[in-house]
Amino acid sequence: MTSTATAPPETAPAPEPTAPARPARRHTPAWLVLPSLVLLVAALGYPVGWQVVTSFQHFGMMQQFGQPPEWVGLANYASLVTDPELWVIVGRSIVFCLVCALSTVAIGLGLALLMGAVSRAGRLVLQVALLLAWAMPVVASMTVWTWIVNWRNGLLNWVLERVGVDAQGHNWLVEPLSFLVVAAVIVVWMSVPFVALSIYAGLTQLSPEVLEAAEIDGAGGWKRLRHIILPLVAPVISIVLLLQLIWDLRVFTQIKLLQDAGGVANETHLLGTYIYQLGTGAGDFGMASAVSILMLLLTVAVSWYYVRSLMKEES
Amino acid sequence: MSRILGPASSRHSTRGSTRRSVLTVVAVLVALVWAFPVYWMVNSAFLDKVTLQSSTPTFLPFGGSFDNFATVFGDAGFIRALGISLAVTLVTVAAAIVIAFLGALAISRFRFRGRRSFILALLLIQMLPAEGLFIAQYKMMSSVGMLNNVLGLALLYTAAVVPFTVWMLRGFVAGVPVELEEAAMVDGLSRTKAFLRITFPLLAPGLVASGVYAFLQAWNEFTVALVVMTEEQSRTLPLWLRGFVQASATRETDWGQVMAASTVVAVPVIIFFLVVQGRMSNGLVGGAVKG
Amino acid sequence: MKKTLGLAVATTTAALVLTACGGGATGSTTDPSAGASGNAGKTITLWLAGTDTPKELRTYLQDTFKSKTGATLKIEEQSWGDLVTKLTTSLPDPKNTPDVTEIGNTQSPTFTNVGAFSDVSDLYPELGGSKLLQSFVDVGSVDGKQYALPYYFGSRYMFARKDLWKEAGVAAPKTLDEFNAAVKTITAKNPRTIKNFSGFFLGGQDWRNGISWIFANGGELAKQENGQWVSTLADPNTVKGLTQLQDLYRNASKAPADAKDQTPWLYVNDADEILDESGNVTGKTSLAAATIMAPGWAHWSIGDLKDKDGKKVREWNDAKFSAFVLPGNDGKPAPVFAGGSNIAISKASQNQALSKELLKIIFSADYQKKLGGAGLGPANTDYVSSLGDDQFAKALIDSATNSKLTPAAPGWATVESKMVMEEFFSKIRDASDLTALAREYDAKITPLLNLK
């Protein structure tokens, strides 16, 4: 972390606080943006370019092992979009994604506000708990969760039985809906820490005076939240919500590991797992690339309205 | 940190303090629920595999042992993997914060040509699924001879987290009114000093949040590391951890060991967070707002 | 220039290896000055999957390789789950490819067909030829040429609760029909009145164990016709096996519809904790089956609960448990699905000659016996006796003699990654027309089998 502490002195001369267009500093923004651009082009330029090109090719294991790839134009895309199964899964994924992303942000916002309203000790306990959950390696957290819902010796059934529900041997993963609910709980559990800590970081920027002033004016808690707090942390909320939408739409690891533990894979696929077995899992990298591009377009479509309003704010 | 913070605090009234105690209880309860799977991991790390398969849960690791931890620490690959993961992660965090901070300044404090395209590009990059990129990433790193290279992996990681961190920090930079800095300059501070004294402290929470994010992304990433760190000597912790899960085709996985290894992997993150948190609240920037 | 030198060295050492084997010597008596000088600075890399090859065997390989060729053998362990990804990226890259790699047997056809491996047909007779486990050789061959050879095998057999079989009044089965009838009887009688008790526990999606019934009835999953692979689930013999499976799913197994082949041994073990503090019976869900089918190594996890050095362990108890091979219709062992792996030389390797030397060491009598000694089925059937003569070794050997693998079709890996077989098996239980169901899945599988 010392790096953050030392970074600003070097960078400090550049960020002139005054807004646009003083001729002397015309080139400043270019210099500021340059490192990001160089980095992104260096690390992603070739892979993304390769992916775009490959999506128009027949590129499977044969080609990976030296056969020349064959141009197939839009064939990969065509076979994707004409696959009726895909659209069922797209629908399922969108619902799953909206439910997860909205609950995550709602809970995350709630916890962030809670952190702001409690004593220092309480806040630290909550922060550390959230961070523990976030820091837990995925393989460990998925294993623990599958243990909890295990039909034979799972903690969930054990507890339910103790409170008088006949849950012995109930299999939570065999019904697709029940499987997806379990998956949603896990995904939300995993993502809330990031959202809560980010929004809380945003809250800490507000000056207490603003909030206290609002209180003296007699604004109630709810009104204060809606009219003062939310607008001020809106930039953070909007970016974390967008990210949750993006991530939850293509959630992969959690679903895959849960499918390994139970459930019928072909009834519980979401976009992430479906495209994985369609492309990479099947060694068909042309298809995998086409799927990635299609995913990108889908994500843009799902978040289009949102992105547009974000971009409008920019101008 | 609490001195900067404490939003929405109603610390003046008794009604407020009762409310606050109730909320603190709620917060602790939420914390317990959230951390339960983590507790379960640590608990299991002390148990042997037969006990873990029992049909009655074992809530406390009494009768457990440190054997699993002994196995983990006795693993020759652990220290090496820890070193590599630390190196990759710290480089990623440092690079991501510096680069993203500059980018964030540019888009929140300046209007320039290509600004909107830059912002849009950052968004689009995050929407691109990373799963399909691994073959090309391997080819690229192999052709420039950067396989099994800590800096090479850190480069890929930094690129993966920078789009988000720029967005995140941009919100924080935008949240600091330019007038604050200008006011300070009127008071006779140089621009640099004004920035350091006024703006930077207000960005601290954002830097911490981005830093934690970058740290966790780099710390727990698996696929890219798998593909570009091909040799056993250059494995990161997640790759090493995976070895415990899928150790053998002819023996069952010892989940107690997996849990012990996972616990050990999670510890540095907590340390990182607590250190950063402590730094932020003590001295470095604390109190800047209220003077 | 460099290449010819390498070849010359290789031939010399090859001759030496031959003499070493022929004379039955221990293999480390080779004169190091012969081949050593030319190879001294060279290193080849061997990828082994998982921890299955014990340390002792690795050391043996490294030492023997050093003394025979003078070159160094570097062994890197790859995790099973990531092997395909790593092979996909590294094998085509001459700069970073492993020289020799282990590969799962069902993963072999794909990589063999795309030309990732070197042709070792010339070496094949010398390495064991027809003595090598045929089903494993098949998945590593294309057009009669051998690329990937067997490394070790494991096999699946039955683990049963002797006491429960007795309580239900059924005898050990001699044929497949007897087995099917016996486990149904046990389920019906449920001698200890345990809720959801299975005479034979077969997970609803557990095709890896279930296909034994297809093989036992002479059925196949797929076959090659005119150079093209065709799925054959709807063939009469296959359907016969499927019908028996349906009967088992309906009348013998109470396993969850979504269970796969993970940890079935949990269900034949007794309750871990029979009493809680107040003396009430708990953990009654633990014992749930009288019979399971599992890879041979499951016997480490089956048995009575014992405390050993403060740790809880399972200890096999002959009075309570038995292990036997699934009998076929003719009374001989039924063909079951074999686990295990193959080994092959990367085509992109810069050290072909040295790699072949390594293969010779691996297929030497010495090493084959060491594999058996470590409980891994040796590739060369001449040495299976090295597995020992306890009941597990016996069951392993018996089942392996007749073992089968998934089709050697290049696209079989796709079928597995799409989990088509899981889906198909999950529908068997409730299917009213098995042949129609099988046809439906033939239509799904056939296009996947051949590489596009």
Structure description:
The complex is a heterotrimer of chains A (315), B (291) and C (452). Chain A is mostly helical. Chain A has one domain: MetI-like fold, CATH 1.10.3720.10. Chain A has 16 helices and two strands. Chain A is flat. The relative contact order of chain A is 0.12. Chain B is an all-alpha fold and 291 residues long. In chain B, helix 4 crosses helix 9 and helix 5 (115-127) crosses helix 7 (150-175). Mean pLDDT of chain B is 83; it is low at 1-11 and 282-291. Chain C is an alpha+beta fold and 452 residues long. Chain C folds into two domains: 2-154 and 339-401, D-Maltodextrin-Binding Protein, domain 2 (3-Layer(aba) Sandwich); 155-336 and 408-449, D-Maltodextrin-Binding Protein, domain 2 (3-Layer(aba) Sandwich), CATH 3.40.190. Helices cover 39% and strands 16% of the residues of chain C. Chain C has 17 helices and 14 strands. In chain C, the strands form four sheets. In chain C, strands 1, 2, 3, 6, 9, 12, 13 and 14 form an eight-stranded mixed β-sheet that branches. Chain C has a two-stranded antiparallel sheet with strand order 4-5. Chain C has a two-stranded antiparallel ribbon with strand order 7-8. In chain C, helix 1 (2-22) packs parallel to helix 12 and helix 2 packs across helix 3 (55-69). The longest helix of chain C is centred in the N-terminal third of the chain and has 21 residues, at 2-22. The A-C interface holds A 58, 60-62, 64-66, 151-153, 168-169, 171, 173-174, 260, 262-266, 277-278, 281-284 and C 88, 91-92, 110-111, 114-116, 195-196, 205, 256-260, 266, 285-286, 288, 413-414, 417-420, 422-423, 426, 448, 451-452.
